[in-house]
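Workshop exercise sheet. Pairs work together: one partner reads the sequence aloud, the other fills in the structure field after running the prediction. Swap roles for the next sheet.
Pair: D.N. / O.F.
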Amino acid sequence: MNKSADLNFKSCSFCPTDKLEKDLYKCPKCQKFYCSVRCYRSKKHLECSELFFKMQCEELSENSAEEKSTSSISRPLTTFEQYMDEQNREKSELDEKLINPEIPLEISPDEQLLFDSDDEPEYLSDVVESSMRQFETIDDEELDRNLLAAGLPIVLEKGSEEETQEQLEKLYKSLDDDEKKKFTQMAEGLFEKDFLAYTNCFRKKKSK
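Structure field:
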């Protein structure tokens, strides 16, 4: 079997090398895999690699005076690994902005207060008042439907077992597909818990 066909293996884009994906590097600019610095500097990858080394030269030029005063040996301020980590971090932040454009990645202390506003007593008071107004205006049937969809107990009109079953079926039919799915999952979970409790109880009695 060809290793490169295995989902766990990837090929270097610049040499005939197959490795586990976790053992390869990925260029944050072009998203191509490479196995070493030599491959990163390949002629096929000049567009990305030249940018890195250009940044290195500019950084050294800007800081040469300061480095000469502290050390007789000049060295890059950014290593290859640091540069790649920075590029990956910037790409991750960009992806996060595209996924959640409404959530800022960096917020000021004043903005942080706005995000924590749900902890304020005034905010909680407004939520309670709004909920009470909604509770007073909603009819009983709609209230029961919302409670059933949320998996909460409801108060049914007194009647025979058949009438009670009819009320439940009527409420269930009024749920939309998503609410029915959630209710079914909740009911199955409760049944499984009750069954396990009954089984454990039976085993304890039998062991005695």
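Discussion prompt: The first strand starts at residue 9 and ends at 11. What would you look at next?
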